[in-house]
Design goal:
ten-stranded mixed β-sheet; alpha/beta; 415 residues; single chain; Amidase signature (AS) enzymes
Length: 415
Amino acid sequence: MTHGRFDFGRTAGADPLGAFVPGPRLTLEPKGVGPLAGLSFAIKDIFDTAGQVTGCGNPDWLRSHDPAKAHAPVVDLLLAAGATAVGKTVTDELAYSLNGQNAHYGTPTNSNAPGRIPGGSSSGSAAAVAGGLADVALGSDTGGSVRIPASYCGLFGIRTTHGRIPLQGIMPLAPSFDTVGWFARDAKTLARLGGVLLDADRESHAFMRLLIAEDAVALAEPEAAAALAPEVERLARRFGQVEPVTVGEPGGGLGDWMLRFRTIQAHEIWQVHGTWIERVKPAFGPEIGERFDWVRTVEEQAAASAADAREAFAARLETLLTPGTLMVLPSAPNIAPLTSSDAAALRDHRSRVLSLTCIAGLAGLPQLSLPLAEVRGCPLGISLIAPREADRALLAFAADFAPASEIGDLISRPI
């Protein structure tokens, strides 16, 4: 696999990947010397930075909102730990897509899978890190918006336990699913951010039991499943107990849980953004416009029924993922689709993606994608879901496990 990087020192201020929002590049100097000294970070443009309007991927949002009065707390934490902010990054409109194609600002370049989408909605953040324009980047994950770009762009990426990191100063999408996440090119750097952004896990986690989510693995396309199989086997050798599980049953299967996820998400999105949409009548790109036309039609009763089912699903996942247990599954059903894929193909792919990502989303669990496989020279992630609040233990496990990978050393190899 070729992992392309740009030398940040040579391209400071430039944007060869279309990763950053248009206009003058934001730079924020560190506020102290700490554990992240020397690291540069990019910021998804749904996180507030003082004195700037948070654009959220849509020009009408940009013109109808005032500049932020303060940085989002997570931005302040990174600055206080010694990191330097090097720009705000492009996001899908209002963070409501998994493709990374913005009709207004373009599609950030996936330098590790040329000609393919970077994934969204944290598209610019993933593109910036994959291309070496930032060491790490903040993103958000509601339905897969860190996990999927991480898989497509060949990065390590984490979605944290729901509620573990405060969301102040970050545009909400669907509050019962929204989480903070971030990207890095290596697992140890990913964990360094966790040491700053996450308080200590509430209990120790020595992972001794591995669950293989067989119905999730079945959603992978054959070439992807074949590429992931050796990594699943290597992972299994690390555990004393390995068990196959069917995550979606009872309840009709992962496709049905995906539909429940979408129903709850859509209802929450309209509650959050419906008033602004009705007042401003923003111009959305075709895909996003169709989606917002749909969310306003989701009925309260349907959302309530899905939410009731979600409680049972989350309880079952908690029973499966006891302390000391990890679950392995594909991060995505295959490598990133081509940028030339038609709308119908992308919709079908998105449904299969959400059938995977809804598992951690519905249960509010942490999930980490590791770029340990490849198909046709393009990266593909394998994911680990941990028990609630085991985020730091998950990061530590990934940092210990990843270096043995044959692909791990290629992540930062310049072209």
